[in-house]
Amino acid sequence: MAAYLEACIEEADGDAAFIAKAVLARAQGMTQVARDSGLSRESLDKALSGERSPSFDTILKVVSALGLKLIATVRSEAEVS
């Protein structure tokens, strides 16, 4: 799941809705993810629908519920250009 999410982030080119939609497509047991994230199933479905960009808070909750963590790294000069 972590490798998939990383690939989606790279491909999304800053499009949070794209990433959210990709996570929704891969997440197993959305009811459990909703419980583990502290979100209602309805709000989770809306946030990850891909129709709007989810809040960063929602992203952090879902990432944690999936057993993942976000890390930051410095981009190489080739990625910056």
Structure notes:
This protein is mostly helical and 81 residues long. The protein has one domain (2-80). The chain is built from six helices and no strands. The protein has helices at residues 2-12, 16-26, 30-37, 41-47, 56-65, 77-80. The longest helix is centred in the N-terminal third of the chain and has 11 residues, at 2-12. It is globular.
Structure summary:
The chain is an all-alpha fold and about 80 residues long. It has helices spanning about 1-10, 15-25, 30-35, 40-45, 55-65, 75-80. About 65% of the residues lie in helices and about 0% in strands.
Features:
mainly alpha; 81 residues
Low-pLDDT runs of 5+ residues are none
Helix and strand content put the structural class at: mainly alpha
Biggest sheet features: none
Gross morphology is: globular
Kindly estimate the percentage of residues that lie in beta strands according to DSSP. under 5%
Order of helices and strands: HHHHHH
Tell me the layout of helices and strands.
Blueprint: H1 2-12, H2 16-26, H3 30-37, H4 41-47, H5 56-65, H6 77-80
